[in-house]
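Example (one chain per record):
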Amino acid sequence: MFSGIVEEAAVVTRLRKENENLHITLRCSFTGELKIDQSVSHNGVCLTVVEIAGDEYTVTAIRETLDRSNLGQLEAGSKVNVERSMMMNGRLDGHIVQGHVDQTAVCTEVREADGSYYYHFEYETTPEMRRRGYLTVDKGSVTVNGVSLTVCTPTDSSFEVAIIPYTWANTNFCQIKAGTVVNLEFDIIGKYIARLMEHR
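Predicted structure:
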């Protein structure tokens, strides 16, 4: 489980395909604190550390993960938002994030507003997906590339988020522009409520 409070933007150093799997090697400041089998969120996707060498570590994404996320679009030099799993004796600064990406969205607009930034995202939706809780609500929570954010002006298939300068500078939001594909995880509480309502 994660909180959506990104620790830093790690840098992809190598990518290696093996059958339908993608091995992703990254460099970040806390590599020395990682261990094999540890879970780390990458752009909101929970992946297992499978190898550590110096200041680099490797995780593996399977076909299901690549189909549902933007990890298949990574290149050497890409920045990836990373967060280690939440410690149960700490504060929950963001919201409950599972690291199970639901789908991708596309950034359609970025606009600056007196030092902060507004990002508009659009995503595919169907009545069935909305019944399953794949939706956003005004002032609710959503995870974008692993970042816990508050929803603004949602519609059935879009929403906006406001990004403060610190988040812009310390995550890969600084690289997101119109046309960029991002990962979405909708609020787990909303999904449970939607499921309960379906079975009333």
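Caption: The chain has a mean pLDDT of 94.
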